[in-house]
Structure to design on (617 residues):
């Protein structure tokens, strides 16, 4: 097996081609490059196209067991070109329903969505899109390589570029080592990589990824994150629905939190996270006795090499500093802790008003 | 656009051509045709009639049943199995997707029918040392009939579950086959509303008899070119209408 480092090195050269190709956001079915401005040739103004994704009062109501159930309520969301946005929500929050409306799998009950200024109901809107579904399924008898060629044709990749695009997509998704094995014989993680490769094969400008790390083991998840990071650095717009809040926090420029179909918060992680009343204290040269005394003042204390890292509240921090001084230990730093995205998510969801019960359908 | 369509047709064809139902149907039919052509029970004239009769029936039966089974579950399995999502996320219309699904399945069944037809024509060549134009024409019309049955199954599959689609398609197919003889006779025997309903049903149902040139082939009869043209136009128009209605039905379907 080729080592990750070798692969990454190899990939860098090809990624340069991929990035260069990204300068042409997409190609038409005839293989003509289309710039974003040209993309909007169908009577759509440049003003409308300032967003990669825009939804206006997007609403979806289903009828379940003779009752109206609104999965998405008046969703107003904008994603700028080149931005990475995390779309967070619990199961049933409306994430997949929103993505389905963006891709015209289902029609909104009310409101509208645009992809680069083109109404999402038009196939042309999907020219610049690469989509990775949650729990992807592909024909079992095809190999990833065959699937990539089919999707390259569907995405409008010109024949002369197809081979290169397929190779790049398979390598970027780390799916090249099993490109000739039938998909039916691949593991879930491998299938997930194939799904990412098919999303990338058209060299899309906008990637819509529905739970891309779902079902992946920790190693594969880290690999997936590095691929997303590389795509982000290439300037791709990424709309990422995920349960893995830590990963979203690491990758995303902005985060949207949806709960019971309502958009509760939307902003950068810094905007959403608040200062907590917890302080992180780092000290060096503390004797065992000092460590024992410090433990009684901190809610958590761990040793990190030669340093002690403790977390304490506002009152405890002064006592801890005094204790360290008294015992001759060196205080390295004291910082006020910010909320994690997980804490933000739980806080916002806990404070959300409960929605009205489903109303009866006529 | 054409490349995308052909890629979809290829995917649909590859899926259909792997289905066991098609393999079994084609193999069984070829065996039956071969037996009818090689086991000698009668004198040559009767033997040839039996080969023609059996051959045409087997091609039609195997082609129609394969097409019904392939088309009735195609959409359902694509949607339920979530295979449809990566494809519909591409810049293609649903009409293209549906047309390609139909064309791919029809291509796979046509391949099977070509193998059966080749067996039949080879046996006729062995017995008669020539293949009549009528044999080719009769086989071509069988293809048309199978295409129509497939279009009907496609339309019904946008409305019903696979099992229901199979049942309804076979029911309509059976009624369409009876139509000429039975429904018109029934309409003549009734009056008023009943007559009107039977006439309307008779007009809406596909007239499968129009494509069956088996008897003309078996009895070495000629069929007027005008009739053949009219039947071909009727078949293409009926199948086209079914596909159009399927597209209309599938266009706003939530997947």
């Amino acid at each position: 097996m080729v080592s990750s480092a070798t692969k990454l090195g190899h990939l860098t050269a090809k990624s340069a081609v991929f990035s260069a190709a990204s300068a042409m956001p997409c190609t038409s079915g005839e293989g003509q490059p289309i710039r974003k401005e040209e993309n909007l040739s169908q009577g759509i103004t440049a003003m409308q196209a300032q967003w990669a994704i825009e939804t206006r009062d997007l609403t979806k109501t289903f009828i379940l067991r003779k009752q109206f159930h609104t999965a998405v309520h008046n969703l107003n969301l904008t994603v700028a070109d080149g931005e990475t946005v995390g779309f967070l929500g619990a199961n049933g929050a409306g994430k997949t329903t929103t993505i389905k409306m963006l891709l015209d799998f289902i029609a909104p009950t009310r409101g509208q969505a645009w992809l680069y200024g083109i109404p999402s109901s038009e196939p042309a809107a999907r020219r610049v899109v690469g989509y990775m579904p949650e729990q992807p399924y592909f024909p079992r008898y095809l190999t990833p390589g065959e699937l990539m060629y089919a999707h390259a044709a569907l995405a409008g990749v010109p024949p002369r570029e197809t081979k290169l695009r397929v190779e790049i997509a398979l390598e970027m998704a780390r799916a090249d080592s099993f490109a000739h094995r039938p998909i039916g014989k691949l593991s879930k993680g491998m299938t997930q990589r194939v799904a990412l490769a098919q999303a990338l094969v058209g060299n899309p400008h906008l990637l819509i990824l529905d739970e891309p790390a779902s079902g992946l083991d920790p190693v594969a998840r880290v690999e997936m994150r590095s691929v997303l990071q590389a795509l982000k650095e290439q300037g791709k717009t990424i709309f990422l629905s995920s349960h893995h809040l830590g990963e979203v926090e690491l990758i995303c420029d902005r985060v949207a939190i949806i709960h019971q179909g309502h958009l509760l918060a939307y902003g950068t992680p810094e905007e959403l996270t608040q200062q907590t009343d917890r302080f992180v204290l780092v000290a060096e040269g503390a004797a065992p006795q000092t460590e024992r005394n410090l433990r009684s003042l901190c809610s958590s204390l761990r040793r990190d090499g030669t340093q002690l890292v403790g977390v304490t509240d506002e009152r405890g921090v002064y006592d801890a500093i005094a204790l360290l001084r008294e015992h001759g230990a060196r205080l390295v730093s004291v910082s006020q802790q910010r909320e994690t995205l997980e804490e933000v998510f739980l806080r916002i969801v806990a404070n959300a008003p409960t929605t009205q019960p489903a109303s009866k359908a006529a | 656009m054409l490349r995308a369509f052909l890629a979809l047709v290829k995917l649909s064809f590859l899926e259909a051509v792997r289905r066991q139902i098609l393999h079994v149907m084609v193999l069984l039919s070829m065996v039956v045709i071969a037996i009818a052509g090689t086991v000698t029970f009668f004198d040559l004239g009767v033997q040839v009639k039996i080969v023609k009769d059996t051959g045409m029936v087997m091609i039609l039966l195997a082609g129609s049943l394969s097409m019904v089974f392939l088309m009735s579950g195609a959409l359902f399995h694509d949607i339920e199995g979530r295979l449809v999502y990566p494809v519909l996320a591409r810049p293609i219309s649903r009409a293209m997707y549906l047309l390609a699904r139909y064309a791919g399945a029809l291509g796979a069944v046509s391949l099977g029918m070509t193998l059966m037809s080749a067996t039949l024509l080879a046996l006729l060549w062995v017995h008669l040392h020539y293949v009549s134009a009528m044999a080719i024409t009769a086989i071509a019309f069988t293809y048309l009939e199978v295409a129509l049955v497939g279009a009907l199954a496609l339309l019904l599959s946008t409305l019903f579950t696979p099992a229901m689609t199979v049942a309804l398609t076979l029911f309509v197919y059976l009624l369409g086959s009876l139509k000429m003889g039975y429904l018109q006779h029934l309409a003549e025997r009734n009056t008023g509303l009943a007559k009107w309903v039977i006439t309307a049903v008779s007009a809406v149902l596909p007239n499968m008899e129009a494509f069956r040139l088996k008897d003309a082939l078996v009895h070495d009869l000629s069929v007027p070119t005008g009739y053949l043209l009219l039947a071909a136009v009727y078949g293409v128009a009926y199948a086209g209408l079914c596909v159009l209605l399927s597209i209309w039905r599938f266009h706003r379907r939530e997947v």
Remarks:
- The mean pLDDT of chain B is 92.
- DSSP finds eleven helices and no strands in chain B.
- The interface with chain A takes residues 1, 3-4, 6-8, 10-11, 14-15, 18, 81-83, 85-93, 252, 254-255 of chain B (CB under 8 Å).
